[in-house]
Amino acid sequence: MDTLHSMMRTLRPETKSGTGHLNVFREFLRHLDSIQRKAPVKPARAKPQPRRKPAKRTRGS
């Protein structure tokens, strides 16, 4: 958590003294949320259909 706190401080300097870990974590979540919104949406993949076994041939005819 301390590493996260120091990284967030380098991204945006503290304006208030004594910013708690909870505020740092909320800021981190906001950054993740904004990154997720900017990410391209992957198209959904269709499920592959199971393969059927070939029909058995009968003898004689």
**How many strands?**
0
Average pLDDT over all residues: 76
**Unreliable stretches:** none
- Radius of gyration of CA atoms, rounded to a whole number: 28 Å
How many helices? The count is: 2
The profile of the biggest β sheet is: none
Residue share in β-strands: under 5%
Q: Could you state the oligomeric state of the chains shown?
A: single chain
Class by SSE composition:
mainly alpha
Key structural traits:
61 residues, mainly alpha, rod-shaped
Task: Give structural notes.
The chain has 2 helices and no strands. It has a domain at 2-11 and 19-38. The chain has helices at 2-11, 21-38. With 61 residues, the chain is an all-alpha fold. The chain is 46% helix and 0% strand. Helix 1 (2-11) packs across helix 2 (21-38).
How are the elements arranged and paired?
Layout: H1 2-11, H2 21-38
Helix pairs in contact: 1-2
Task: Describe, in short, the structure shown.
By secondary structure, the chain is mostly helical. The chain has two helices and no strands.
